[in-house]
């Protein structure tokens, strides 16, 4: 009985091992945006994401030139890295530092500047 | 007399072991016949890049035994219902829309197993586990600070931004990009929920669920809360 259990346990562990050790390479800001951000900020970045309907605070429109120009690059960086709460905004904006590297977040800030056709202070 | 009794016990035990093994083997055969692997990965090939992710037709099942309750599998495999409102990989089902993006109706699971088939397949799926996952943590019926858990779920952790839950009286509300959670208590394994919340990317490296760094007792509180969620008898859905 024990032997059979051990054997089947060993087999299932071999099956499971294949998948569970993240070893990932960096993605482009555009790809990261479409995966992580578009669900709330919209596939065009205009704040029209599919999660928006039931959200009490609307996701920011990243294509709004005047609105985005008022944000400093460092504020954008902190909002992405630590989430909305860290910059005095809504907790609906999640933190991403556990998933994206420092470089990926910096590239994301640059990508948002492309979306808004604007520069920060 | 004693000897024959013992002999009987041994025979019965051997029979039960054999039945168990052959049931799992039958389950494998049914899975092959129904081509489940044409949609589902069962061998651990997770998506490691976003472009790999876009090719996933259905959720990975190679740790189904850690993730699910057997009773759920048994029923779902006979009568699948929608779990992910925007499909397995939401990006494949959304497009730009006026005011709010459009969602194209995602497909259901194609499984239409008979009762007997569902029995052996769910049994087999329960053998696909992640042995490194700590277990024995969650106990149904444990007291927990419900008000506190709700505060985290709906406010500081904003879990409802992406997940649909019953906000009272069968009224279903919440975001569309994550799996429904209003049935979580009868679908998921509590130990898995705890381990998943701590590190979603461990299970699905390219999942779009954010990873928050919170202490274990907060995750445990949320696990207890999520595991009390049951599908309401009557549902009032809000439609986008």
Can you put this structure into words, describing what you see?
The complex is a heterodimer of chains A (121) and B (240). Chain A has 121 residues and is mainly α. Helix content of chain A is 49%, strand content 0%. Chain A has helices at 2-17, 29-41, 65-69, 73-82, 102-116. Chain A is globular. With 240 residues, chain B is mostly helical. Chain B contains 10 helices and 5 strands, in the order H-H-H-H-E-E-H-H-E-E-H-H-H-H-E. In chain B, strands 3-4-5 form a 3-stranded mixed beta sheet, with no helix packed on it. In chain B, strands 1-2 form a two-stranded antiparallel sheet. At the A-B interface, helix 1 and helix 2 of A face helix 1, helix 2, strand 1 and helix 9 of B.
Key words describing this protein structure:
heterodimer; A: 121 residues; mainly alpha; 0% strand; B: 240 residues; Cytochrome Bc1 Complex, Chain D, domain 2; 3-stranded mixed sheet; two-stranded antiparallel ribbon
What is the compact description of this entry?
The complex is a heterodimer of chains A (121) and B (240). Helices cover 49% and strands 0% of the residues of chain A.
SSE topology sketch:
The complex is a heterodimer of chains A (121) and B (240).
Chain A: H1 2-17, H2 29-41, H3 65-69, H4 73-82, H5 102-116
Helix pairs in contact in A: 2-5, 4-5
Chain B: H1 2-33, H2 50-54, H3 64-67, H4 70-76, E1 94-95, E2 102-103, H5 115-125, H6 146-156, E3 164-166, E4 171-174, H7 184-187, H8 190-198, H9 200-203, H10 216-226, E5 236-237
Parallel strand pairs in B: 4-5
Antiparallel strand pairs in B: 1-2, 3-4
Q: In CATH, what is the class of the largest domain in chain B?
A: Mainly Alpha
- Name the shape of chain A in a single word: globular
Helix fraction of chain B?
A: 40-55%
Number of helices of chain B: 10
Measured distance between first and last alpha carbons of chain B: 72 Å
Strands in their spatial order, largest beta sheet of chain B: 3-4-5
Largest sheet of chain A: none
Secondary-structure element string of chain A:
HHHHH
Tell me what portion of residues of chain A adopts beta-strand conformation. under 5%
Indicate the mean pLDDT of chain B.
93
Work out the helix count of chain A.
5
């Amino acid at each position: 009985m024990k032997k059979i259990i051990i054997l089947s346990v060993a087999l299932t562990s071999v099956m499971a091992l294949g998948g569970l050790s993240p070893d990932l390479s960096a993605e482009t800001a555009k790809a990261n945006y479409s995966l992580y951000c578009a669900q709330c900020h919209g596939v065009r970045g205009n704040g029209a994401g599919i999660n928006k309907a039931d959200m009490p605070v609307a996701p920011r429109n990243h294509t709004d030139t005047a609105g985005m120009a008022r944000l400093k690059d460092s504020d954008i960086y902190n909002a992405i890295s630590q989430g909305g709460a860290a910059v005095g905004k809504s907790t609906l904006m999640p933190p991403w530092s556990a998933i994206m590297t420092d470089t990926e977040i910096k590239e994301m800030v640059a990508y948002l500047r492309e979306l808004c056709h604007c520069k920060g202070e | 007399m004693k000897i024959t009794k013992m002999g009987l016990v041994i025979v019965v035990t051997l029979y039960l072991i054999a039945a168990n093994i052959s049931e799992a083997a039958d389950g494998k055969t049914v899975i092959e016949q129904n081509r489940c692997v044409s949609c589902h990965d069962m061998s651990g090939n997770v998506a490691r890049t976003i472009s790999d992710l876009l090719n996933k037709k259905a959720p990975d099942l190679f740790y189904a035994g850690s993730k699910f309750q057997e009773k759920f599998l048994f029923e779902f495999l006979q009568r699948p219902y929608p779990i992910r409102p925007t499909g397995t990989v939401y990006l494949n089902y959304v497009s730009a829309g006026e005011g709010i993006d459009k969602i194209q109706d995602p497909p259901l699971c194609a499984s239409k197993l008979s009762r007997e088939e569902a029995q052996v397949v769910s049994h087999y799926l329960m053998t696909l586990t992640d042995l490194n996952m700590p277990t024995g943590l969650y106990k149904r019926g444990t007291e927990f600070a419900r008000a506190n858990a709700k505060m985290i779920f709906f406010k500081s952790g904003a879990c409802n931004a992406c997940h649909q839950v019953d906000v009272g009286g069968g009224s279903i509300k919440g975001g569309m990009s994550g799996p429904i959670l209003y049935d979580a208590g009868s679908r998921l394994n509590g130990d898995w929920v705890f381990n998943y919340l701590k590190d979603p990317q461990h299970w699905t490296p390219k999942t779009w669920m954010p990873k928050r760094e919170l202490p274990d007792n907060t995750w445990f509180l949320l696990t207890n809360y999520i595991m009390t969620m049951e599908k309401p008898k009557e549902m009032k859905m809000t439609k986008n």
